[in-house]
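[job 4471] stage=fold_predict status=RUNNING
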Amino acid sequence: MDVQDFEQAISLSAQTALRKPIRHHELYQVVEEREMHKRCDV
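[job 4471] inference complete, writing structure tokens
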């Protein structure tokens, strides 16, 4: 495979690699906040 724009290829690869951990972290935060609200409401 030939890469014409090496910097863009690295940038896109890094973004792709970070998407899953970021989504996982965001989901974890939402769940934690929901649980915290439930404990405060009780």
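[job 4471] summary: The two ends are 59 Å apart (CA to CA).
[job 4471] exit 0
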